[in-house]
Amino acid sequence: MYHETALDRWKRFTYIDDLPEEISPFRELLEEYSKVPPGETDELLIKTRRKLWEVAMYPCIGRWSFLNLRSVQDSHFKTAFERLKNSTGLDMDSSSTDTLLDIGCCVGQVLRKLVHDGIEPTRLFGTDLHSEFISIGTELFDDEGCGLTFAAGDMLDPEDKALDTLDGKITIIHAANFFHLFTWEEQVKIGMRITRFLKPGVTNALIFGRQIGTHNPRERDGRKKSFLHNQESFQKLWDEVGMKTGTRWRVQVGISEERRVDIPGFGDMDRYIRFGIYQSAL
User: Fold this and answer.
1) What distances in angstroms separate CA 50 from CA 68, 127, 138, 179, one per listed residue?
2) pLDDT tens figures, 187-240
3) 80-97: per-residue pLDDT in tens?
4) How far, in Å, CA of 84 to CA of 77, rounded?
5) Span 165-181, average pLDDT
6) Which of 60, 64, 66, 57 has its CA nearest to residue 8?
7) Which residues contact 218 (CB under 8 A, 6 or more apart)?
8) In contact, 56 and 130? CB cutoff 8 Å
9) Within a 10 A sphere around the Cβ of 254, how many other Cβ atoms?
10) What is the Cα–Cα distance from 213 to 254, expressed in whole angstroms?
11) pTM for the full model?
């Protein structure tokens, strides 16, 4: 008799064999930015996903979510784009020049989309826990030396100095499918680490993205504990970050009721959310 293993069950809920139908924006990015022939994009993506899954069996990899570029239509993303587009000055240390860091950047697809849409690559930075994701991204987009800056490191490890190269350089941070992976205490540590990325003297920093949230804030049990937020709890968390770092933040959360979260370990009250975290004057 066959007994389903924990790994088999995880893959059953988090791995989809076939490419999704609605990935035309990603195909276009490969064709226009990387000059991949149209007939070769799907095979390249299948090959790339296989490599990524071997590194980490994340739902965003197994379900092809990393191909989703719909987030660029989010209002917070549009705000970030306009700030990057309208920044002035060539001095990267100038506080008048906005820069964006993509946390948990995976293959750097969002950064390549920004470059394709006209943002100067030297204003764009990416970080991920897995250095392999970054190198796989460079191979996927075939753009070694493109001007983007990447750093692989662990934001929870105080002994990991790999991310120090980003300190004091950032004004805008994008974090998709990221905070919901961690406990409250870990999210506070991440928030404190984020403030070190910010340019000295910046007063209008923006942190935005999407993740799984909930109508009922709680610590989620499972293979790895994590804390899920609504508007009030996420504001409370960033109040704590602000208290510990001498900063102040205003949180805006939008909850989607369009579809339920059908990933193991999530409940009926859990929803996909988009958020913006705005720095406020002290």
Assistant:
1) 17, 21, 16, 25
2) 999 999 999 999 999 999 999 999 999 999 999 887 789 999 999 999 999 999
3) 999 999 875 444 444 458
4) 10
5) 96
6) 57
7) 227, 228
8) yes
9) 16
10) 10
11) 0.92
Q: For residue 177, which of 73, 103, 90 has the smallest C-alpha distance?
A: 103
Q: Looking at this protein, which amino acid is placed at residue 31?
A: E
Burial 205-243 (b: 16+ CB within 10 A, else e): bbbbbbbbbbeebeebeeeeebbbbbbebbbebbebbbe
Residue 80: exposure state from Cβ atoms within 10 A (0-12, 13-18, ≥19): buried
pLDDT at 17 over 70: yes
Query: Which amino acid, residue 90?
Result: L
Residue ranges of domains in the chain, CATH in brackets: 71-280 (3.40.50.150)
Please provide the distance, in angstroms rounded to a whole number, between the alpha carbons at the two ends of the chain: 64
pLDDT digits (tens, 9 = 90+) for 20-49: 988 999 999 999 999 999 999 999 999 999
